[in-house]
Amino acid sequence: MKKLSFSHKVWLARHARRAHLRRIVEKDRRHERRTGHQIKRAVGYRDGTRRKIWVSAKPDPVPALLCFDRNFEETAAFIERATTKLCQVYAENRNRIRSRRTPVGWHDFASLEEITPGAALVLAAEYDRVRMLYGAAQMYAINVDDWQAQPRDLLRSLGFFDLLGIEAPPVRPDEMRTIVRFRSDTNVNMAVASHTLIEVIELAASAAIIGVGQDPLKEFRTFLQAIGEALNNTSDHAYPDNLPTDFPNVGRWWITGAVDLDARRLTFAVYDQGVTIPRAIPYGRRFERVRRIVQTLTRRGYDPDDRSLDGHAIAAAVRSGVSGTGLDHRGRGLGLMRDYIRNERSGRLRIVSRNGEFVACTGRKDEYRTRSVPLHGTFVEWIVDL
Amino acid sequence: MSVAQMSRDRVRTINVASDFTRTPGGRTKRNGPFNGVQFRTEVLEPALRQMPGEYTKLVVNLDGVDTYIGSFLEESFGGLLRGLYDTFEEAAERLEIRATGEFEVFRDLAYQYMRDQDKRNAKGR
Questions:
Q1: Cα(A212)–Cα(B66) distance, rounded to whole angstroms?
Q2: Of the candidates B59, B54, B58, the residue with the CA atom closest to the CA atom of residue B7
């Protein structure tokens, strides 16, 4: 074999990188012609490491605002698409993910400008479900440095990056924590609920919004009771043996709390991925009463499979639990959740389940509506004034 | 004063927070630990069965917990009238529920659940 001259070696060293890049570009063009997907390089985090990886440049679009109050339709639609894609892709690739170069099931959160605590909880719960079902340790958080500050900080405090098992972005010096880490369990674990609420109260106290004595729960005991009722409902009704859920479930609920420092409000959210309230109603003890209330509201027969009545069904379920005990302002279950807003503290309660939404505000008439996009679970959120 | 008379005045107190848990849960084992069935069968009913030998009145103090949910109270106290006792009067003769401050609402709720079960028992009699 002829020995390479010195000048030839210099030329190879200078042009090798260029030739390598040309080969990569040509390979990507062949991939694009074959699949229609454009490949681009991105910074990814996996298992605490940071590397440049190739990703499909067609991620699912993320709305600029993820909020069930101000942007319900887009938020619910995104959650549904994300859940469908995550469950489908990870189930299909469970055994092949380690060998794949291209990460699967990723969303470009750089376009997300604002996310509320409730929407963040639902998003984290969906990723957590996939992690538990399929051991999805291969999830990437793509180009986290390009994410906007508010969603990145909120998701970090929530524990979103921790559940993906990746290194979280560093905390900014001027950042103020406003949300507590999410927690999850399978049954009525009041110790977890209590601990979470105390953490939120202490967040508010550290920002000098409220004062707390030796017992931080003293002014919030009934609120904790309302939260407990939500967990109890999940435990009793969300995952029945005889009803399948729309997606594979892990039988859990997720909770978190947050403080709005400017508006001086406390938010607490509970989310489960169960069969939803409208589907569970026919199997509950108060079905007849709920059915009568729905018929009164709609002036027609009640069909639990008719999604256009989901809003009415949730409203009826709330009303059926309003005066069960006969005591003043002491409802049961959903009724008690609403009574807290009515009688104890001003604020708002939102219940979203399948295509139904129920909102109760202090000083205003209850509202209920049916949405075009379903939520595949039940989401309960209190926003109370401090 | 005779021994029998002294025994008539003896009261035993159960504090839920210190004798059971500070975080009572749901109704049954399916709802997780520290549930109403557990409290009733492992704490309340054994204590009530020891009457009137060792004491004549059982007081349950509800103070000091983080909160109660309705299912726990209903199973714990309403459940007494589904097994151990037939009427509210029979239970109230032996059991007193006490609470102070913000816990009084839970006391009222527990008694209401007992009265509700008493009404259901009366319909069945």
A1: 15
A2: B54
List phi, psi (to 5°) of B63: -65, 155
Determine the Cα angle at A204 with ends A200 and A205, to 5°. Answer: 115
Contacts of B116 in chain A (CB under 8 A): 325-326
**What's the gap in Å between the CA of B42 and the closest CA on chain A?**
19
> DSSP assignment, residue A107?
B
| Mutation for testing the B interface, residue in A183, A186, A187, A188 having most B CBs under 10 Å | A188
Q: Is A208 left (phi over 0), alpha (psi -120 to 50) or beta?
A: left
When pLDDT is cut at 50, 70 and 90, the band that residue A196 belongs to is very high
Is B35 in Cβ contact with A190 (below 8 Å)? no
Question: Does B69 contact A217 at a Cβ distance shorter than 8 Å?
Answer: no
Reported confidence tier of residue B43, pLDDT bands at 50, 70, 90: very high
A 221-280 near B (Cβ less than 8 A) = 221-222, 224-225, 228-229, 231-232, 235-236
- Measured CA to CA, the distance from residue A138 to residue A93 in angstroms comes to 11
Residue of B16, B22, B27, B67 to mutate for A, most A C-beta atoms under 10 A = B67
Position A160: which residue type? Answer: F
Whether residue A187 and residue B31 make contact (CB cut-off 8 A), yes or no, is yes
Asked if the peptide bond before residue B52 counts as cis, ω within 30 degrees of 0, the response is yes
Give pLDDT tens digits for A317-357. Answer: 998 875 444 344 455 778 888 888 888 889 999 999 999 99
Cα atoms in the 13 Å half-sphere on the side-chain side of A337:
32
The pairing of strands A114-115 and A65-66 is parallel
**A212 neighbors A201 (Cβ within 8 angstroms):** yes
A69-98 per-position pLDDT tens digit: 999 999 999 999 999 888 877 676 665 545
Is pLDDT of A271 > 60? yes
The one-letter code for the residue type at A221 is: R
Whether the per-residue pLDDT at A124 is higher than 90: the answer is yes
- Domain residue limits, chain A: 34-164, 183-385
Q: Is the pLDDT of residue B31 over 90?
A: yes
A332 vs B112: CB contact, 8 Å cut-off?
no
Q: Does the CA dihedral A105-A110-A113-A118 come out positive or negative?
A: positive
A22: its two tokens: 């040309």
User: What is the pTM (predicted TM-score) of this model?
Assistant: 0.87
- Provide the residue ranges of all domains of chain B, joining segments of one domain with +: 3-120
In angstroms, rounded to a whole number, what is the distance separating the alpha carbons of residues A324 and B117?
13
d(CA A239, CA A244): 8
Residue type, A227: I
